[in-house]
Inverse folding.
């Protein structure tokens, strides 16, 4: 609050005061008060009024200055009442109580919305688990049948399971950060599970699945990592080229600081204009528009999960040559105390 703005706000009060002092001066003269004494009285009244206005400005200016600066400084500006003292002047007290009531009402609405979201999340998770049961039963029934129709039906069921898993992990990543459990896991066992899950698609598409991971352990959530790898492998299968030597290679590198898991394929590759946006929500890119089956959610969810787990994921690619996904796990002792 600037002094000039404060004076402008008090404009009518100042004008009325000046007019009043002028009439007081005339009255004093009418009662035969010496002009010098009358002027002295008016000057004292003016000084007193000025001091009172200045005092009023100073205490209000401090409150409003702290209020505005704290609002700008805070990430969550609705917490500003926690950072300021209740003002002593009446208008400020009214504002303080109004902000308190607004903040209380907002918190109640936020809690109600959080409760609804959590209930919705719980329902979605329950529904997904119930839906996956008959799908798993159908896959089991088809497991010993090798006709072309059976393989196609099984492939459709696998795609359906993948899409359902996307919904499940999207809900978990957005609303329940305590749903993961970080511990030391064997990378080879996780990759083996992913390979088994995608075995039929790999065989149908004649893609060699090459794994070179031995005795590599990292700290992560095994289920979340399995989902992430499944999304990446599924993309590699979906965007394969019509060549005879298609492959997906999975290998790792390790130094003192990090362990890197690399998933590499020789598929269609990602266009340079798309590479910076592959982790954006619902972004499908040129390849996705060609396939018409891409939702643009798989890599977005994978990136979201990696961020929450503390892993780094990057993609490099060249059209009609290769795509390489690198997931970096930290080797520090941050997780080791939570075994």
């Amino acid at each position: 609050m600037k002094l000039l703005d404060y004076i402008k706000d008090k404009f009518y009060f100042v004008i009325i005061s000046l007019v009043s002092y002028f009439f007081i001066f005339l009255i004093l003269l009418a009662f035969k008060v010496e002009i010098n004494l009358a002027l002295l009285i008016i000057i004292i009244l003016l000084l007193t009024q000025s001091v009172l206005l200045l005092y009023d400005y100073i205490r209000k200016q401090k409150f409003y200055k702290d209020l505005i600066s704290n609002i700008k400084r805070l990430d969550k500006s609705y917490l500003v009442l926690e950072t300021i003292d209740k003002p002593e002047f009446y208008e400020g007290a009214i504002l303080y109580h109004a902000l308190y009531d607004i903040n209380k009402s907002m918190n109640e609405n936020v809690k109600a919305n959080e409760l609804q979201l959590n209930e919705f999340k719980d329902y979605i998770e329950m529904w997904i688990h119930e839906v996956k049961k008959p799908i798993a039963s159908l896959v089991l029934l088809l497991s010993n049948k090798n006709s072309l129709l059976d393989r196609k039906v099984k492939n459709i069921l696998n795609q359906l399971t993948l899409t359902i898993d996307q919904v499940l992990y999207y809900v978990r990543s957005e609303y329940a950060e305590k749903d993961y459990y970080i511990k030391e896991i064997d990378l080879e066992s996780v990759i083996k599970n992913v390979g088994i899950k995608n075995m039929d698609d790999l065989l149908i598409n004649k893609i060699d699945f090459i794994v070179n991971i031995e005795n590599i352990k990292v700290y992560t959530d095994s289920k979340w990592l399995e989902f992430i790898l499944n999304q990446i492998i599924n993309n590699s299968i979906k965007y394969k080229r019509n060549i005879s030597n298609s492959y997906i290679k999975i290998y790792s590198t390790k130094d003192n600081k990090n362990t890197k898991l690399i998933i590499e394929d020789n598929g269609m590759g990602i266009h340079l204009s798309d590479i910076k946006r592959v982790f954006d929500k619902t972004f499908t890119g040129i390849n996705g528009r060609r396939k018409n089956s891409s939702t643009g959610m798989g890599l977005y969810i994978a990136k979201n999960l990696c961020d929450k787990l503390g892993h780094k994921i990057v993609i490099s690619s060249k059209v009609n040559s290769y795509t390489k996904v690198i997931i970096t796990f930290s080797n520090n002792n941050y997780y080791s105390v939570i075994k």
